[in-house]
Amino acid sequence: MTSASPAASPWQAPSDGAAGFGLAVLVNANAKRGGRRLAVQIARALPGATVRLTKTAGEIDAWLRTIPSPRALFAAGGDGTAVALVNALARVTAASAPGPAVGILPVGTGNGWAHALGAPKLHRCLELLAATSGPFPTRRYGLLEVEGTLAHFAGSGWDAMILDDYKRQLDATKGPGRRLTKSVYGYLAATLLRTAPKVALVGNPHLLIENLGDEVFVVDGEGKPRLLEGAGRGAVLYDAPAGAAAAGTCPEFGYRFKAIPFAERMPGFISVRVYDRGALRAIAAIPSLWRGTHPIGGMHDWLVKSVRLTFSRPVSLQIGGDAFGKRRTIEFRAADREVRMVDWRRLLCV
């Protein structure tokens, strides 16, 4: 492996035989949780690894091209950092190439993807990596593609508004209260005090969902996928008001919120979920929505290859937990590319 420039240093040159040898760790230099301090912490725990601070997608691409054959690549951060690494890897490697294993060190806010893969606390993750010298247990993970971006989940409507309101609330909070704001309680406060009043005021937009793929499966009342007869390419799957519409291959949005509980049910497909009730009904159903309870009134679930969503007015869009502005039309599709993700649950059992 090659060393980086001093401005984005790996903190020390990797050495053969040292803990973490052959690993490459990406740290977001723009992270609010101390990017530089985090890089130093990881480098000290894994002296054999290359640890790199980056600020832009171009820097990530350039860094990946200097690493010929890592044992594994790790994103130290939240869902956004993991999405940035996966997209950079797709840009610099051939679609037919198997690619290195990718892991997530959970130091973000919600850590939805890391939790879905069973990641423990950061210090325990570093202990496991330091103690593992061979290949890592992995699981193949399908990806969602939205507007050319690969991700594990995306959403429109309320869920995107909640994430945006939560981040604004976090930015506005200073002092001791910030710790509580940066938690599941802060997420719920943003939902109840910021997003819900806006949703109650304007009501739900009308949503049209068209199938752009071939087979479509609907999730029945027992949680089992059932082939939807007659739902070929161009078929209308939904045509009614809706407050939120999400899609993904990962069941969690963060904070153990199982927003898309059927996301891992059928490899090669993405799970699309629509909620059609109003703000007050959604607030009353928060415990069930959080647990991914099924069935639940007002919820619709499909497993698809590709769909187009058209709203009656522009709605907020989030991809992998990051805001992407507002759209009236959004296309979700199952990506052609998969990624091998480090399976922390299996690693904990080794």
Structural topology:
Elements: E1 23-28, H1 35-45, E2 50-54, H2 57-64, E3 72-77, H3 79-92, E4 101-106, H4 112-116, H5 122-131, E5 138-146, E6 149-151, E7 153-157, H6 158-172, H7 177-181, H8 184-202, E8 206-211, E9 217-219, E10 225-227, E11 236-241, E12 244-248, E13 270-275, H9 279-284, H10 286-291, E14 299-304, E15 306-319, E16 322-342, H11 344-349
Parallel strand pairs: 1-2, 1-3, 3-4
Antiparallel strand pairs: 5-6, 5-16, 7-12, 7-15, 8-11, 8-15, 9-10, 9-14, 12-13, 13-14, 15-16
Tell me about this structure.
It is a single chain. The chain is of the alpha+beta class. The chain has two domains: 154 residues, Probable inorganic polyphosphate/atp-NAD kinase, domain 1 (Rossmann fold); 184 residues, Tumour Suppressor Smad4 (Sandwich), CATH 2.60.200. It contains eleven helices and 16 strands. The strands form two sheets. Strands 5, 6, 7, 8, 9, 10, 11, 12, 13, 14, 15 and 16 form a twelve-stranded antiparallel beta sheet that branches. It has a four-stranded parallel beta sheet with strand order 2-1-3-4, sandwiched between helices. A hairpin with a 2-residue loop joins strand 5 and strand 6. Helix 2 crosses helix 3 and helix 6 packs across helix 8. The protein is globular, with a radius of gyration of 20 Å. The chain starts with 22 loop residues before the first strand and ends with a helix.
